[in-house]
Amino acid sequence: MQAEILVVGGGLGGVAAALGALRAGRRVVLTEEYDWLGGQLTSQAVPPDEHSWVEQFGVTASYRALREGIRDYYRANYPLIPAARAWRELNPGGGHVSRLCHEPRVAVAVIEAMLAPYRSSGRLTVLQPYRPVAADAGGDRVTAVTVEHVRTGDRLTIEAAYTLDATETGELLPLTGTEYVTGFESQHETGEPSAPDTAQPMNMQAVSVCFAIDHVDGDNTIDKPAQYDFWRAYQPDFWGDRLLSFRSPNPRTLAISERSFTPNPDDDPLSVVADQRVNPGDGNLWTFRRIAARKLFTTGTYDSDICLVNWPMIDYFESPVIDVPDVDTHIANAKQLSLSVLYWLQTEAGFPGLRLRGDVTGGADGLAMAPYIRESRRIRAEYTVVEQDLSLAVRGDKGAVEYPDAVGVGMYRIDLHPSTGGDNYIDVGSCPFEIPLGALIPRRMDNLLPAGKNIGTTHITNGSYRLHPVEWNVGEVAGALAAYCLNNGQTPRGVRNTPEHLSGFQAQLIRDGVELRWPDVSGY
């Protein structure tokens, strides 16, 4: 098969990359290993993690179209009560983590609708479920990628002028021989205040296998998980209790705190204001990532709220799942941890009415279809974003560094979950930041671009750049950049380092609704 632009990985970055390239008139082949497009938003079942100004500014126009499309889908298809239907900033789950908490399938439907015109015209070909298994690369160029059907084993080789790696773990980087880094860089290399003295390449953030639950009458207790006794006794040194408990470190202060858990509270979801500046929202785990608030729908629609479990106790930090020989074993262990948390809630914590809602998350085992991957392999980039570029403690009222090659914006605290090296949370205030084009350009490769969490960040700054709107922005820009290069006979490096092409590309992004600068707002 041949393509002008091949996008490997159909998560948020991959979908946005395809849209960016298609909008510029190019033909695209998009591959994805799971049955749903959308990555962390859908197959990984993580409601959007977004900044406080998301309803006003600070995201691309196409990401805003995705968000508003989700709301419109609810208004068109769900029996909302009149007050919810009239709520401009409709939050279907009334969750506290985000101003838009929703069921994964709705995002799948909206993403499919966004891509539908291009599929119909023949300009977009989507291959599912396929994962990359090999690549042909010579010199500084990738000539082809081979993908394999995850169920049949059939293989297909795709040649492309440009290849974009939008996989969750940067899978194309080792396959193509592209230089990359994993884990913690050293302070000697990056100068980052929070970095260790020595590089720790196998020290990576925890992965999590999320799941959805509701609470109804009866005993819905699952079979005892095979590893339950192990996880029930598991107690990290820094946790302050067993992992299977409601006690854990506060990410921002590291003080041991106890969270509450109250299924179906008598709250008013219309009054929820999700704002990370004011409150991280994780005090009551039920409402933290609630994705369906029963009171927003006509009586009888839902027997219960639906709660998405992406909580501290499901973080699996026994081993990384990148560059290790037994990835499948560790993913299976992470699933056992998640099932053990559910079983503990149903038995020892006293909530037998909790019901696993695999129909909501799409996984055949009742869990999310895919593990939530926070940290990817990252390219050795022309420019690497470091902590001192955006840390609120370092930058203060100066704000984050302004880059002359800015191609987008983002904002999130530097939020690192416990890691495989035994580190506790690192949660540092951030300034609203920009995305430099240099972070998307490998030091050597000419026609391979990162389109997700694999850009030139560090272990630390990945904590801010890994969230939904930033991944989308990165992917959209990568797709637009590949198309710009084809349309203008340029290379990505040439675009960045040639003033007239850089300004021309930035002007194109602005026309397409990509914000390059922040207004005068302060970080948190």
Descriptive overview:
It is a single chain. With 524 residues, this protein is of the alpha+beta class. The chain has helices at residues 12-23, 61-77, 82-86, 104-121, 172-176, 187-190, 228-233, 285-288, 327-346, 358-361, 387-390, 392-395, 462-465, 468-488, 492-497, 499-511, and strands spanning 2-8, 28-31, 124-127, 130-138, 141-149, 155-165, 180-181, 207-208, 211-215, 247-249, 256-258, 290-292, 306-309, 315-316, 354-356, 378-379, 406-410, 414-416, 426-428, 433-436, 448-450. It contains 16 helices and 21 strands. The strands form seven sheets. Strands 1, 2, 3, 4, 5, 6 and 21 form a seven-stranded mixed beta sheet that branches. Strands 12-13-9-15 form a four-stranded antiparallel beta sheet. Strands 7-16 form a two-stranded antiparallel sheet. Helix 1 (12-23) packs parallel to helix 14 and helix 2 packs across helix 4. The longest helix is centred in the last third of the chain and has 21 residues, at 468-488. This is FAD-dependent oxidoreductase.
What is the fold's blueprint, element by element?
Elements: E1 2-8, H1 12-23, E2 28-31, H2 61-77, H3 82-86, H4 104-121, E3 124-127, E4 130-138, E5 141-149, E6 155-165, H5 172-176, E7 180-181, H6 187-190, E8 207-208, E9 211-215, H7 228-233, E10 247-249, E11 256-258, H8 285-288, E12 290-292, E13 306-309, E14 315-316, H9 327-346, E15 354-356, H10 358-361, E16 378-379, H11 387-390, H12 392-395, E17 406-410, E18 414-416, E19 426-428, E20 433-436, E21 448-450, H13 462-465, H14 468-488, H15 492-497, H16 499-511
Parallel strand pairs: 1-2, 1-6, 2-3, 6-21
Antiparallel strand pairs: 4-5, 5-6, 7-16, 8-14, 9-13, 9-15, 10-11, 12-13, 17-20, 18-19
Helix pairs in contact: 1-14, 2-4
Pfam family, one: FAD_oxidored
InterPro entries: FAD/NAD-bd_sf, NadB
GO molecular function: L-aspartate oxidase activity
